[in-house]
Amino acid sequence: MAESVVTNEHPEGDATRRDFIHIAAGAAAVGAGVMMAWPLVNSMNPASDTLALSTVEFDTSKVAEGMQIVITWQGKPVFVRNRSAAEIAKVVEEGAVGSPPQTDAERTKAGHEPFLIVVGSCTHLGCIPTFGTGDFGGWFCPCHGSHYDASGRIRKGPAPLNLVVPEYEFTAGSTIRIG
Questions:
Q1: For 156-170, what is the mean pLDDT?
Q2: How confident is the model over 150-162, as a mean pLDDT?
Q3: What pTM did the predictor assign?
Q4: CATH number for the 51-178 domain, one of 3.30.70.20, 2.102.10.10, 1.10.10.10, 3.40.50.720?
Q5: What does the pLDDT average to over 42-66?
Q6: What is the maximum alpha-carbon separation in the chain?
Q7: 3-class secondary-structure state, position 66
Q8: Residue 22 annotated in active site
Q9: Is the pLDDT of residue 112 over 60?
Q10: If you ran DSSP here, which 8-state letter would residue 54 be given?
Q11: Annotated catalytic residue within 10, 22, 144, 147
Q12: pLDDT at residue 43, as a whole number
């Protein structure tokens, strides 16, 4: 009787085919991993609609003395106020007040003192203060009772900080660039 012998030897072609299947499966796994990670990586990029708002320019000659204009920068209101001589004299006389204590000169640009540019969000909870209704001739936040003076410095109420002065510069004549 003839015995049949079983061996574990495979022809040369089978080993090559098996290696190809392992490489193909590995490549498919790497591709699937990249496809799964792409939305996470892509979500870390800045939104295209906010890139256009990184800076904004505004002509301050449109703001008459004693008036205020609200513009939008990075989705936030920004108060552009052309203060009267009486308002400026009052806040300069008061010296460094607020939190942190600041003088009016620290909050405006030299040569452009009448113009005060501040982010129009209360530093307590982000409400939008109204001008001319506070105890100190500036802004009042009706939501929680914070009072700011005409330089945007906190004077009374729960707000912990002065109104924020964004980075800005006068570019050409009366035009400002915020951001």
A1: 92
A2: 92
A3: 0.70
A4: 2.102.10.10
A5: 79
A6: 122
A7: coil
A8: no
A9: yes
A10: S
A11: 144
A12: 83
